[in-house]
Design brief:
two-stranded parallel ribbon, Outer membrane efflux proteins (OEP), alpha+beta, four-stranded antiparallel β-sheet, 2 domains
Length: 480
């Protein structure tokens, strides 16, 4: 006998340890989950790199304010030397004319001058082989404001990259809230269905006893059994759905574990929220789409200024220093020089005019798009605000329905035990209570999801934590 008791105790202990191992859960708050979702998020990493790229682009544009220094070198072999050839006849002919005027018919000196005049005076300037190494300096002094406008554009590019990151971050928050509270909702639905199944199981046991005592017939007991089997099926389906939600949430927060995640933060509602006009007032200045449109309009204005600046000449300081020269004498080409020059494009085939017209059309397009963005945001705010109000109305109605359903179920259970109510009435009351509890949980979830989307459209998703901390949770639903 002792042997069987020891064996049974060991078996019970192993089963308990197995159950404990299976029930191991990792509790996470919404804030902790948010941190995990942001860590290693690929989209946010790309957004950070885009900001970094925009900063480097701004630095590159600013480099146009600095001088450009280049080193050049060349070796040249020419087909012949560079030299100056001057015929001596240009000098002997006047001399001959002068002698003939004094001594007409003089032949000796004239013949000598003719021989000299047939020759050329050759002055070498550079040999066939040349080599040089130079340093060149170019410093733009005036570009018609192009550098200023380009610098403004590069600054706006940094701002656009930052707004894009904020928008991606808001999208991550929306996705996390939907999945986190979806997991919380799944857990709560399983709890509701487990309570319903347990209650129907107890009712079924009571029905068996009443059937044995002849107080109810077989049909009523079968009705309870059928609903008990249906409650078990719904419970298993809810658990499967919860398991899928668990997997999706683990992928989102990049947590590789076999343990289940238990969301600690509750579903919530706020009894009162700001008015619709308050949220609409945030759109123009805070929404991500509006911020992006303002940045794009600023960029378009600067692009138009750059196009207009193409009509203005550019002035630059230039200089050169020759460090090594072979075959080129310094008296022919100085080793050092400095000066200033300008470039003025007089006619470019109407290219500048077309660019100006394109820039103006771009501004017109952005103005229209800005109006469209504001209209779309207002429609989104209207829709999401209505969803929030509908959820609050449903919850207010369901609160009363839940209390009445609880009381109805209590009364019918007591009446059933005393033979004053049928099994059908008890089962109907149990099923009704489960449905209104789940409907209330769904309304809480719809409120939370609509709220984070509304705050994101308005550009203030960070205020979701404040609403969450000041909200009323769903805990009261389970006080049976």
């Amino acid at each position: 006998m002792l042997k069987y008791l020891i064996t049974g105790s060991i078996t019970l202990l192993l089963c308990s340890n197995t159950l404990l191992a299976q029930d191991t859960k990792i509790e996470l708050t919404l804030e902790q989950s948010m941190q995990l979702a942001h860590t290693g998020n690929k989209s946010l990493k790309i957004a950070n790199k885009e900001i970094e790229w925009a900063k480097y682009e701004h630095q590159r544009i600013n480099s146009f304010w600095l001088p450009t220094i280049t080193a050049t070198g060349a070796y040249i072999h020419m087909s012949n030397n560079i030299e100056v050839r001057q015929p001596l006849s240009d000098y002997t002919n006047p001399a001959k004319d002068y002698i003939q005027s004094i001594y007409p018919g003089e032949q000796l000196v004239t013949s000598v001058l003719d021989k000299i005049g047939s020759q050329n005076l050759i002055v070498p300037l550079a040999p066939q082989n040349l080599a040089t190494i130079d340093a060149n300096l170019t410093l733009p002094l005036y570009t018609g404001g192009k550098r200023i406008y380009a610098g403004n554009i590069s600054k706006q590019m940094i701002s656009a990259a930052k707004v894009n990151k904020e928008q991606i971050d808001a999208g991550v928050q929306i996705l996390l809230v939907e999945n986190y509270f979806g997991l919380r909702l799944g857990n709560r639905i399983v709890d509701v269905k487990e309570k319903a199944y347990e209650s129907l199981s107890m009712h079924y046991q009571n029905a068996l006893k009443l059937e044995e005592n002849g107080m109810i017939n077989k049909a009523e007991r079968l009705f309870v059994q059928v609903n008990l089997d249906e409650a078990k099926r719904e419970l298993e389906a809810a658990r499967k759905d919860l398991n899928m939600t668990q997997k999706s949430f683990k992928v989102l927060i990049k947590m590789e574990t076999e343990d289940n995640i238990s969301p600690v933060s509750s579903l919530f509602i706020n009894d009162s929220i700001p008015s619709l006009s308050y949220f609409k007032g945030l759109i123009e200045d805070n929404s991500y789409a509006s911020k992006q449109m303002k940045i794009q309009k600023d960029i378009a204005k600067n692009q138009l200024k750059i196009a207009n600046a193409a009509y203005i000449p550019e002035i630059a300081l230039i200089g050169k220093q020759t460090f090594f020269a072979h075959g080129i004498e310094s008296n022919l080409l100085p080793r050092t020089f400095i000066g200033a020059g300008f470039t003025w494009n007089i006619f470019d085939g109407l290219n500048r005019e077309k660019k100006i017209k394109q820039a103006r059309v771009t501004q017109q397009i952005l103005d229209i798009e800005n109006e469209k963005v504001l209209d779309d945001n207002e429609l989104a705010v209207d829709k999401l605000y209505n969803q929030i109000q509908n959820a609050l109305d449903n919850i207010a109605t369901l609160n009363t329905t839940i209390e009445m359903s609880k009381e109805l179920l209590r009364i019918r259970k007591v009446a059933f035990k005393e033979g004053m109510a049928t099994s059908t009435e008890v089962v109907d009351a149990e099923v009704m209570l489960s449905k209104v509890e789940i409907a209330s949980l769904m309304a809480y979830y719809e409120y939370d999801v609509a709220l984070i989307n509304l705050l994101s459209v308005c550009g203030i998703p960070q205020s979701f934590d404040q609403y969450c901390n000041n909200g009323k949770t769903e805990q009261y639903i389970f006080n049976r």
